[in-house]
Design goal:
Blueprint lengths: L5 H12 L3 H12 L6 H9 L6 H11 L3 H14 L5 E3 L5 E3 L6 H20 L5 H18 L4 H19 L5 H25 L2 H18 L2 H17 L3 H11 L8 H16 L2 H16 L15 H15 L2 H19 L8 H17 L3 H12 L8 H13 L9 H17 L12
Antiparallel strand pairs: 1-2
Helix pairs in contact: 1-5, 2-3, 2-4, 4-5, 7-8, 7-9, 8-9, 9-10, 9-11, 10-11, 11-12, 11-13, 12-13, 13-14, 13-15, 14-15, 15-16, 15-17, 16-17, 17-18, 17-19, 18-20, 19-20
Length: 444
């Protein structure tokens, strides 16, 4: 007779359908509505390195369209094979002792042993205060380095640390440490979302953002919930869904969070509304961003990409003024971009956001172009075009291409200076596209 244990049963059900372990996990997560299961975890169940609890078995039964009793009996078979015959699991997953085969003394002794075993289980933790503290320090280091270092220097570290955090959360720790781990997991998934954003992989960015939001919700962290809405707003913005981007930023502002997140969300809303054609709404949101900055309570609880420094706010304001249009707003855009550049250059090296410096220079280039200052346009564009290709994100490439397209207007026909600049822009865009080709191979 073949193996009737839970591992063999799950393996047989999967093979009958021709599914991979990851496919089973995906079907499970579709029922759960969140990323709760991985293919690696399904593999552990099939090897019987772990036994699925009743809650998990009920979902696996739905995935395979079998009665849950089939999996319950398979678990009993596994436990009997291992010599664990103290009882069988009932519908509620509780062991029911067979009093007819035991003396009362033996039953009480076995029951006390069960309590002792559970006490040992409580003390077996894979994450203590030191582990959590080191993890938070590593996340802070990556978050700060992200804004100023080449993306490929950090990508592998971000992924490895995120996966390590997921593994810690699947283990045992005290409730407070579990909450802290969820916050770190949220931040690391947020960093992964930013990696995908910078590479132009917007669907993948959205997936990481949803997991970041789920982790923030599990931790009850209002600041991270607001920050994730900002990331989701960015994703919508770069996919051309400007009204949706504005709504997501507005939703983020409903969270009660301190630090600079209010200014970030209002700035995102302003930029999105301007591109959506709502100039009045954009102006109001810009004013809200300034008020949020002035009334900011407390400091950001994480540095780097999780903070929204004044320099970045001026960079966003420059883009917004350009989108609103009109000579007055173009002049304000130039002033805002100039201020952003000055503030970044006065900051410490690790806080100088390369992406925002590029964006501000390209806003200046466009502003000078709209004011018929082609020398100014070329000088600002040169700052970006002379930079190493690995420092340019998908959004910067898009801004360059858009600038080149505008310089192709009829009014610039026959202008040698413009032709040379457009050729350089096209050459740079071709060299960098697609940005995903620059990704290192990840360790398995």
């Amino acid at each position: 007779m073949g193996d009737t244990g839970i591992g063999a049963s799950l393996l047989r059900l999967r093979k009958e359908r021709g599914w991979t372990q990851q496919k089973v996990a995906d079907e499970y997560n579709a029922l759960e509505g969140r990323a709760a299961m991985t293919g690696k975890e399904i593999g552990r169940y099939e090897r019987e390195a772990r036994i699925p609890v009743p809650y998990t078995r009920s979902h696996l039964a739905q995935v395979f369209v079998v009665e849950v009793g089939v999996l319950d009996r398979a678990v009993v078979s596994t436990k009997r094979r291992r010599g664990d015959e103290d009882g069988v699991e009932g519908a509620g997953g509780l062991a029911v002792p067979d009093l007819s085969e035991r003396s009362v003394v033996g039953t009480v002794s076995a029951d006390a042993s069960s309590s002792a075993e559970f006490a040992r289980f409580i003390t077996q933790r894979n994450a203590d205060e030191l582990v959590v503290e080191q993890l938070e320090a590593d996340v802070a280091r990556l978050a700060r380095s992200y804004v100023s270092h080449p993306l490929m220097e950090l990508y592998v570290d971000i992924k490895r640390l995120r996966d390590d955090t997921f593994d810690l959360l699947r283990g045992r720790q005290r409730p407070r440490q579990t909450s802290d781990l969820y916050v770190s997991a949220s931040r690391l998934c947020g960093l992964c979302a930013h990696v995908c954003l910078d590479l132009g992989h917007y669907d993948s960015a959205a997936t990481h953002a949803r997991t970041a939001r789920a982790c923030a919700e599990a931790a009850g962290h209002e600041g991270m919930l607001a920050w994730v809405r900002a990331v989701e707003s960015l994703i919508a913005y770069w996919t051309g869904l400007y009204e949706q981007a504005a709504r997501l930023a507005q939703a983020g502002r409903q969270h009660r969070a301190g630090g600079s997140i209010g200014a970030r969300l209002a700035s995102l809303e302003a930029r999105s509304l301007a591109l959506a054609g709502d100039k009045a709404g954009a102006a109001i949101a810009l004013a809200d961003a300034e008020r949020s900055r002035e009334g900011m309570l407390g400091h950001d609880d994480a540095p780097g990409v999780f903070a929204f420094p004044a320099a970045k706010q001026f960079a966003y304001a420059g883009t917004t003024h350009l989108a609103i249009g009109g000579r007055g707003h173009v002049q304000q855009a130039i002033a805002s971009a100039d201020t952003a550049i000055r503030l970044y250059r006065g900051a410490e090296a690790d806080d100088q956001s390369v992406g925002d410096l590029f964006a501000a220079h390209l806003d200046l280039a466009r502003g000078h172009m709209l004011l018929d200052d082609l020398d100014g346009t070329e000088a600002m564009a040169d700052f970006v075009l002379d930079a190493p290709a690995e420092r340019m994100s998908a959004s910067i490439v898009r801004r360059l291409v858009d600038l080149g397209r505008e310089l192709g207007g009829r009014q610039y026909g026959g202008v040698a200076q413009v032709s040379r600049l457009r050729e350089r822009i096209q050459h740079t865009a071709v060299l960098i596209d697609p940005p995903a080709a620059r990704l290192p191979e990840l360790p398995t």
